[in-house]
């Protein structure tokens, strides 16, 4: 079976059978190199057999900063990823690096399947949301119970937003808990980059439930980057 690209370039975040999610970041430098790197990945994968049934999907998001690429892959288990690294990864990376020299592979993190998610609204046009905000929140230890409680606090704040500031432009949120440390990843869909920027600039969020989110005990830092879907691959039938 060869790789097949999905027309909307998006993974099914609730795909059955997912036991592990791997998220990595590349820096490539410019929008032109972003496009070239995505094209090189597609060529390297579509020209080869799909590596293992333990890999369910492999997707790439292009940063709106014109520099970064986020890789989101779904696996049946972390061991399936280890088998891929040992057997299949090097020749693909060599082809990609030959096409786009100088890629900086910044970080790879391991996550459990989605812990909690919610649909918050729709674009009203029947179209898919235009941007994905990836929020990474780091805690001072791997305590999963505390991280789950923090996610619950975020949901309380989202409910407050829905009551006080309806129509913010957020359409869905999906939370992963890291298995290799104290991180929580929020994969949040928005109607547009502008809607997300305006929401971040709303100073009223500094009070109430959002204040508790930002000052939660043990939270040591967070960052957010915006991306657009660029490529999503899975095994052909």
Q: How would you describe the overall organization of this protein?
A:
Helices cover 31% and strands 35% of the residues. With 237 residues, it is of the alpha+beta class. Strands 1, 2, 3, 4, 5, 6, 7, 8, 9 and 10 form a ten-stranded antiparallel beta sheet that branches. The chain is globular and about 50 Å long.
Attribute tags:
237 residues; ten-stranded antiparallel sheet; alpha+beta; single chain; 35% strand
Low-confidence stretches: none
- Strand share of the residues? 25-35%
- Write down the overall mean pLDDT: 93
Roughly how much helix do the residues carry, as a percent range? 25-40%
- Overall number of strands: 10
Global shape = globular
Number of helices: 6
Radius of gyration: 18 Å
| Assembly of the depicted chains | single chain
User: How many angstroms does the end-to-end distance come to?
Assistant: 7 Å
The largest pleated sheet is described as: 10 strands, antiparallel
Q: What class do helices, strands and sheet pairing give?
A: alpha+beta
Q: What is the helix/strand order?
A: EEHEEHHEEEHEEHHE
């Amino acid at each position: 079976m060869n790789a097949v690209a999905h027309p909307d370039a998006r993974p099914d975040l609730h795909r059955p059978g997912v036991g592990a999610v791997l998220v990595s970041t590349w820096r490539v430098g410019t929008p032109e190199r972003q496009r070239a790197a995505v094209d090189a990945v597609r060529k390297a994968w579509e020209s080869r057999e799909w590596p293992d049934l333990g890999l369910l999907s492999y997707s790439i998001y292009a940063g709106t900063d014109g520099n970064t690429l986020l890789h989101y892959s779904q696996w049946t288990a972390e061991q399936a990823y280890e088998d891929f690294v040992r057997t299949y990864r090097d020749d693909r990376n060599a082809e990609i690096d030959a096409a786009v020299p100088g890629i900086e592979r910044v970080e790879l993190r391991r996550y459990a399947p989605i812990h909690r998610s919610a649909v918050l609204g729709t674009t009203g046009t029947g179209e898919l949301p235009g941007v994905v905000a990836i929020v990474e929140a780091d805690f001072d230890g791997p305590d999963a119970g505390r991280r789950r409680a923090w996610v619950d606090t975020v949901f309380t704040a989202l409910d407050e937003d829905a009551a006080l500031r309806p129509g913010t432009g957020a359409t869905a949120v999906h939370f992963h808990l890291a298995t290799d440390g104290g991180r929580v990843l929020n994969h949040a869909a928005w109607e547009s980059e502008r809607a997300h920027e305006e929401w971040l600039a709303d100073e009223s969020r500094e009070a109430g439930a959002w204040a508790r989110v930002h000052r939660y005990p043990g939270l040591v830092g967070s960052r957010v980057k915006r991306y657009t879907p660029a490529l999503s691959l899975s095994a052909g039938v």
